[in-house]
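Fig. S4 source data, part A: sequence.
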Amino acid sequence: MTDLSHPKLPGGLPDKRQVAASFSRAAGSYDSVAQLQRDVGGELLSRLPQGLQAQRWLDLGCGTGYFSRVLAEKFPRGHGVALDIAEGMLRHAQPLGGAEHFVAGDAERLPLRDASCELIFSSLAVQWCADFAAVLSEVRRVLQPGGVFAFASLCVGTLFELRDSWQTVDGLVHVNRFRQLQDYQQLCAASGLRLSSLQVQPHVLHYPDVRSLTHELKALGAHNLNPGRPGGLTGRARILALINAYEGFRQPEGLPATYQVVYTVLEKSR
């Protein structure tokens, strides 16, 4: 059964309205299961240019505002904007502070003035944007000369254990699709921004069982959002078949879930 509620976007990426709704629903549970997000964001922070002083910064795809608060501590004299497409996330984030402004907005059409930011920081958000070239164009417009765009995203190979296990069960799309690494490389090269670094680093989490993994994905709002995903409930027999298939990946630490994280730093020429 195919979900035809929204047209299929280029590359089979989810419709942003579904992404916004899913993450809004997950706002209350997100931080309790967001260890990967904190680890990835922390790694991205460590890759910022040394000595960077950002008077005006943007947390693009701020989620619950965890890294907006970290950026506020890192740049105590700066002024921050936290932006997310999911209004439920913003309602959760705003009372906790960090940024001066909390804005509902689309990364492909930023509601910010030209040359208004010295730093745009985005951790695990732009993988949900179907038109990443538009994101890069907007980033270039909004950055000041000499400004920095640092982002972490996911590429193909993410959750391959879950994807391959489902393939043995029914061959349908159960796992979110992500861009090829080459797409990130090509789009960044064509962005008009200077590529300072682009590296892929796998992050592997371990779970005692499949249910723990799928529960976490749902709590994050990052469960299957693909066009063409199966509709309706998943039968007991298919779940048991999934569990049996995934057990083939088991390691001493538990069932692995691999995230292929793309860390990139771009700079706007002076």
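Fig. S4 source data, part B ends here. Residues 168 and 245 are 7 Å apart (CA to CA).
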